[in-house]
Description:
A hairpin with a 2-residue loop joins strand 10 and strand 11 (307-314). Strands 2-1-12-11-10-9-8-7 form an eight-stranded antiparallel β-sheet, sandwiched between helices. It has helices spanning 8-22, 65-79, 88-91, 100-105, 108-112, 132-138, 157-171, 175-184, 196-199, 229-232, 238-249, 263-270, 330-346, 365-370, 399-403; strands at residues 26-33, 36-43, 59-60, 208-209, 217-218, 235-236, 274-275, 282-283, 288-292, 295-304, 307-314, 319-325, 373-377, 380-387, 390-397, 409-418, 424-429, 436-442, 451-454, 457-461. The chain is an alpha+beta fold. The chain starts with 7 loop residues before the first helix and ends with a strand. It has two domains: 1-353, DD-peptidase/beta-lactamase superfamily (Beta-lactamase, 3-Layer(aba) Sandwich); 365-461, Beta Barrel (Lipocalin). The chain contains 15 helices and 20 strands. Helix 2 packs across helix 8 (175-184). Helices cover 29% and strands 24% of the residues.
Amino acid sequence: xxxxxxxxxxxxxxxxxxxxxxxxxxxxxxxxxxxxxxxxxxxxxxxxxxxxxxxxxxxxxxxxxxxxxxxxxxxxxxxxxxxxxxxxxxxxxxxxxxxxxxxxxxxxxxxxxxxxxxxxxxxxxxxxxxxxxxxxxxxxxxxxxxxxxxxxxxxxxxxxxxxxxxxxxxxxxxxxxxxxxxxxxxxxxxxxxxxxxxxxxxxxxxxxxxxxxxxxxxxxxxxxxxxxxxxxxxxxxxxxxxxxxxxxxxxxxxxxxxxxxxxxxxxxxxxxxxxxxxxxxxxxxxxxxxxxxxxxxxxxxxxxxxxxxxxxxxxxxxxxxxxxxxxxxxxxxxxxxxxxxxxxxxxxxxxxxxxxxxxxxxxxxxxxxxxxxxxxxxxxxxxxxxxxxxxxxxxxxxxxxxxxxxxxxxxxxxxxxxxxxxxxxxxxxxxxxxxxxxxxxxxxxxxxxxxxxxxxxxxxxxx
Length: 463
């Protein structure tokens, strides 16, 4: 096992080599091991200006924000002002979704574990004032359910918007201020921000449009909204992200010695709370848990418009790693770098999310034909067609996703085997980014139609 001190030169070279091969404009990789850190920076923040990426450059960390929100929730639970297993409606009376049963059943635990069943990508802009989250929650009354509460898993941005509003009511602060006062400033992370006017005071990476076939071009506008804050609005440099990771490696204690989270709550956040149909993944409170060899890895992957980020922690080895990039191809970069870090520093294998669950021998042509059809969720329709034992998966965005510039795509997927509950798993390569994607089709039940998971999100069969 290599010591981090002797690994710095190799990490710098790896980031430069892999990012250069992929054409990623800019990236930072940070590593924390036994209290030592190293940051490797590469490229430019913006292809239109050529400003260099620095180790201190801020990137959008997207859904990694959810663990920040979960940490704030657990602080509030410890203080007795939020109850994990009491209905949200009892603690936030303005909360209401279209299904009356779900309205009174959903708890903060369901929201933290993506098991509430709420349609997950309700990404509307409710303005930049302090009431943005209150206005956001007020729009949920007509929002439907993908599945009954606590009966399935589906990645849910909407639920974290609700948690953000619950925190506002419980603490008396707007979400942005609560994050600063209760978490990032006590951690010493003064360049972790959520508002663009604060980000502009620093070196900031700009998102890019970038495909396998076309070079990167700058995104035309800032796409995050204030209501995105609790679900994916944090913008941070790599050293701040590693300081947050260290909090969860050190039983809730900041480097300054301040206890920000009780050790029992840190442990509760890392404990498995929900199964998912996705190969090699389970859900904790905020964290996704994946095996790295015989070690447990905690983490999240982030996908914002024109940026990608990934964070992994291995508590048993006091190890954390982050990768942030200002290109959709940054997901490929992150997976490659994490694989090298796991092998070089921990002597384990970090499985690719696209690694097969088998060799496909238990899946026949008729099995693939049986899953052909149309699947739907809020703002996206997926059409699956079968061709000689392979799956063609066509996505058609609508609504907010279409307005934000997400285009249709076609994924050619090869069945790799059967997962839990006879779910059919297939793997394909995204033709625009080059990243491997997992498709999981789960069979119908007595009460629910068949479903398709893509990007961790459940789509229900409609035809």
